[in-house]
Amino acid sequence: MSWNRIKNQLISKIITRYPSLAKRFVDAYTPWESEDIPWTPFSKPLSECTVAVVTTAGVHHRDQQPFNMADKDGDPSYRVIDGTKPVADLMITHDYYDHHDADKDINIVFPIERLQELAHEGFIGKLADHHYGFMGHITGPHIPTLINKNGPEVARLIKQDGVDVVLLTPG
Amino acid sequence: MGLVQREIERIGVPTIGVSIVRDYSVKVKPPRTVFLRWPFGHPLGEPYNIAQQRAVLAEAFRALCTIDKPGEIIDLPYRWRRERYDDKDISAILASCRSVRS
């Protein structure tokens, strides 16, 4: 493993344990500033809705290509997550937050089992077959890629799947 | 996260995001957000704390049902530790947004 990856993982551990230090890293990162706010009214009863999850916590299946940790601007690609597979088949590749706890229980970043329970109890209609895993911490040239290509691509796939509601979770 | 959320909303699918960095949500402007002042890597809470994870989901769905102003951020009152989660309260929140509007 490169020194850079080790450094990033160490920083992510420190700022997770000492949240007061995290602010310095948050302030150092300049997020994209948007002008407009897209809006689709929510009008369907929740109990009839198909729900999909999109996470930027670096979640993917074990047999999928891990996110690229060598690129300092992050990896703007995504992985399709099969929601019918057991959670033991999932893993996390992401050096910019400490996923020690999420490795133990992935529901704290990708709440698939909790949502399955809510569907079973009838609070939500059902879970979509496909969910989507991104890696957060995207900077530089990858931001336009996310906004203009990979984001809209996933949006189209979700639309095609007949999903009614999307829950988004960070890392 | 917010950037992808915006593209999904733009294509016509309603979205709700869980945020742990309020400043990012303010700038990126996703359509609907619930915010928690919790550590990185823990948007739904602690490992195996099912009631806590359910509470966040319930609040997220309630926000989805109640937010009517694009870009609104709801600050959830839950402390990181020493918070008690009552399953009856969580179920009541979920039930309240079971069939809003028609």
What order do the helices and strands come in, and which of them pair?
The complex is a heterodimer of chains A (171) and B (102).
Chain A: H1 3-17, H2 19-28, E1 50-55, E2 59-61, E3 78-82, E4 90-92, H3 100-104, H4 112-120, E5 126-127, E6 130-134, H5 142-160, E7 165-169
Chain B: H1 2-11, E1 15-19, H2 22-28, E2 32-35, H3 50-66, E3 72-75, H4 87-96
Parallel strand pairs in B: 1-2, 2-3
Strand residue percentage of chain B: 5-15%
Number of helices of chain A: 5
In this structure, how is the largest beta sheet of chain A organized? 5 strands, mixed
How many domain units of chain A? 1
Greatest interface: A-B, 70 and 57 residues
Outline the structure in words.
The complex is a heterodimer of chains A (171) and B (102). Chain A is α/β, with parallel strands linked by helices and 171 residues long. Chain A has one domain. Chain A is built from five helices and seven strands, in the order ααββββααββαβ. In chain A, helix 1 packs across helix 2 (19-28). Chain A starts with a helix and ends with a strand. The model of chain A has no long low-confidence stretch (mean pLDDT 92). Chain B has 102 residues and is of the alpha/beta class. Chain B is built from four helices and three strands; from the N terminus they run H-E-H-E-H-E-H. Chain B has helices spanning 2-11, 22-28, 50-66, 87-96; strands spanning 15-19, 32-35, 72-75. In chain B, strands 1-2-3 form a three-stranded parallel sheet, with helices on both faces. At the A-B interface, helix 1, helix 2, helix 3, helix 4 and helix 5 of A face helix 1, strand 1, helix 2 and helix 3 of B. Strand 7 of chain A pairs parallel with strand 1 (15-19) of chain B, so a sheet runs across the interface.
